[in-house]
Amino acid sequence: MFSITIIGAGVIGLAVAEELSRHYGSVLLLEKEHTFGHETSSRQSGVIHAGIYYPPGFLKARFCREGKGLLYELSEKRGIPHRKTGKLIVAVTEKEEEILERLRERAEANGVTDLSLLSEKEIKKKEPEIKARAALFSPSTGIIDSHSLLRSFYVHAGSHGAVIVFRSKVTAARFRGKHYEIEINGGEYRFQTGSLINCAGLHADSVCRLLGIDVEKRGYRLRYCKGDYFSASPAPKLNHLVYPVPQGENEGLGIHATLDLGGRVRFGPDTEYVDELEYAVRGEKRESFYRSVMTYLPGIKEEALCPDMSGIRPKLQGPKEPYRDFIIREESGIGYPGLINCIGIESPGLTSCIPVARHVHRLVQEYM
Ligand SMILES: Cc1cc2nc3c(=O)[nH]c(=O)nc-3n(C[C@H](O)[C@H](O)[C@H](O)COP(=O)(O)OP(=O)(O)OC[C@H]3O[C@@H](n4cnc5c(N)ncnc54)[C@H](O)[C@@H]3O)c2cc1C
Known about the structure:
The chain has 368 residues and is of the alpha+beta class. 29% of the residues lie in helices and 28% in strands. The protein has helices at 11-23, 59-78, 94-109, 120-126, 146-159, 204-211, 215-218, 286-293, 353-367; strands spanning 2-7, 27-30, 47-48, 82-83, 87-91, 116-119, 134-138, 142-144, 163-165, 170-175, 180-184, 189-198, 223-232, 241-244, 256-259, 265-268, 272-274, 305-315, 327-331, 336-343.
């Protein structure tokens, strides 16, 4: 019998495993793939977000703001490669300039107070290849080597005694009054656990279904929202992350330019709701990527864009539905004491991983 079992070794499950293994013995982390971070946590932009966009009062807003500082601190302490690149949100029309002002107000309501407004001339000085009427500059946005971050959580969780097992898919889970009975790989192995923490990312709603939770009734059903990236060769010379003004809460952050720590530029991700977990990037999207990017990077050539990677967001809202927050909840209220669900952990999940883990720890403390 384990006291705590975590399902899923993405950035959330690993951060939770490190946090809980500091405080509790007998923590088990199960991952269906052959290693950690095989799904969404390795198919994302690697941006440490500042916390600008999210509705005030949302966990997304609070955890992103807190998580940014905590990630920089942890990265410094553990030598995890990262860089505070700074980011520009660029307005190319008069209407977009007005949206910048509203974005700044929202950021301030979220406690992000380091933004400044740049003129066309100031933008040119920072980014000679960018053409825009105005921009919001976020100096504290940055990038991180997410694989090193995940590895660091993995190593520290292990050194605090957490048992982390790969190739172990949870295929059945039942609440037995005082504990949960878990089955791995269709019956290869069965055991009991006092508490169960669902960090299964794109499959978090399926784990709820295994337990008998009505995901439609609870509002837990996930929609897959794919984000494709294109890279550019030759690459434009950019020093900062460059984002267009977002067109709406469900449309993602717009086709932006991200940098990785090797200086490689990638454009994306776009947003496309899909039914299957399928990661191929279709070449015919090149023209629409080009049309978006050339609005703020006029020197880009369409033929320079090449299909790159993609990732899939586990979204709680479908297209045109109201924007939803992360669900991080201890489920005694619906008859599952000791079950903690982490559902809909889309962006800014990477930035928020440490506050999410601490929040889960508080929920475990309250339950135990
Ligand atoms: C395109 C894109 C770009 C993004 N960019 C950013 C960004 O720049 N900054 C940012 O802060 N956030 C970003 N995000 C969000 C961030 O990547 C996610 O919030 C985060 O990676 C989610 O981590 P996770 O651990 O919840 O999920 P995952 O990484 O998907 O991990 C879940 C794990 O659970 C395992 N699992 C599932 N079911 C079972 C089962 N039954 N048994 C055992 N194991 C199971 C899976 O194999 C998987 O490894 C982005 C997301 C996308 C899609």
